Structures are given as structure tokens and as C-alpha cells.
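The instructor's notes for this session suggest beginning with a concrete chain rather than abstract definitions. Hand out the sequence below and ask the class to guess, before any prediction is shown, which regions might be ordered.
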Amino acid sequence: MRHGAATPIATGPHHVDRVPVVLLHAFPLHSAMWDAQRHSLTRMGHPVIAPDQRGFGAAALGESPPSLTAVADDLSRTLDTNGIRRAVLVGCSMGGYVAMEFLRRHPGRVLGLAFLAGRAEADTREMTAARESFARRVLQDGHRGDLLADTVPLLVGPTTLRRRAPVVERLTADVMAAPAASMAWAQRAMAARPCSLDVLRRAEVPAVVIVGDEDRLVRQDESQRLAAALPQGRLVLLRGAGHLTPMEAPDHVTTALLGLVREVGEAGDLTRERY
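After discussion, reveal the predicted structure:
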């Protein structure tokens, strides 16, 4: 397995002038969380890349110390391999942090941005301590099962827990299958990330921030600050959804993403940009 492994680039009735889209998954899942959005975007002719980030899905963790920089550079190499110069980045939770780091390191390669369950600030001291506690406990024999069982209800909203049993069952299976070493590495990488507000303020591209009104991990005011930092940002609030809106409200998320890539495509038509 390679670092930052990606499913082959998804192309339906591919159009060379359609905007490429990258879908970056949340912790501790893998690229399949984007199945609904990947299918719809591909059907519309967009090249879509949904990479498994280091240690998740088909991607090897490797020996690098925990850092989102490594994940962002994995993505840069994946785009190069697929012949894509620039793309719209869509990141959910941890995937959003990766998108921010990619924007910091490769700003000229970003055509548009979508953040789901997003937070731009660095972790507080309490958050950092909580991530380190998670990393230690998940690596300890006898603690992993209980820890992950407690984590699953935080990843979706109460409405999903009550009414969307297939989503909860799928999520539980994916969380339980995630390697402990990968989860610890990712938590420590996220804890080390810097504040990205300054990077976002320089991002003169179409952008959308999507938040579920039942998100237990990212507050609405945090998403509001993220949207406000983006020069072209707008906030979309989804009712009855929690932290994982692509799985909990797939149709609404797909609609928002199609609107974003349409906006990016129209801007590209005006400047005769190709991707």
C-alpha cells in the first residue's frame, strides 16, 4: 500500500473542461464515506479523486511523524499522478484540516473550497490534551473497543441515531475497523496543526462551509468564523444532521457541492482557465 492511496480517478461521461474535485474524508473513516457525492459528481462529468489518507482504507501509514503536512503533500503527489493541476477541495472534519494545510502549501492549486464540520483555529490546550488521551487509550489493549463505542455517537446527530440505523451501522463498522496506530497518528497530527484563519483570508476562491445543526464536535459559531474568514465564503446549515453530513444528509451535501463546482466552472469559463 502507498501513502495517501486513492481510488482510481472517477470519470463518468468525462468532459475535459469540467472542474476536478477532491473529497477528503473525516477521522477515523476512509474514502467510502463520500460514495453518494462521488457518484453524483462523476455522473455530471467531473473528475473526482477521493483519497484514503495515511493509515486509513488502502493507504499505508508509513514512518513519518504525525503531521498534516505529510498528508497534504501526499495529496499533491496524487494530483500530479492523475495529471490534475488544480481542483476544488472538499474536506469533512479532519479532511478539512488537510485542505487547509494543502492551501497553505499549494495555494495556486486550489480552485474552490468546501469545509464540512470545519474549524479554522488551532486546538485549545484542553483539546490537545483530549486528543493525546485518545491516542494513548486507543493503543492500549482492552481500551479500544469501549473508546470507539463512546466515539460513534459523537460523530452523528441525535436524529441520525434515532432514524438512520443503516448510517449508524455502517459508521460503527468503519470506525471499529480503523487501525489503532493510524487513529493515534491522526489525532496527534490534528493536535499539532496551526491556526489557519490567515491562510483562509487569502483564499480568493468560491467557498462554502456546511454545518449540521446537531454537530456535537464543532460548534456553529466555529463554522461561522470559518465562513467569515473566507472572502467568498457562505454558510449552509443542515437541519437534523451532526458531524458527518455527507453520510447523514447526502442529498443536501451533494446539492451544495454541485452549486460550488458550478460557480467555480463559471469563473473558469470567464477566465478561460482549464484544469
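Then share the key points. The chain is about 50% helix and 10% strand. The two ends are 28 Å apart (CA to CA).
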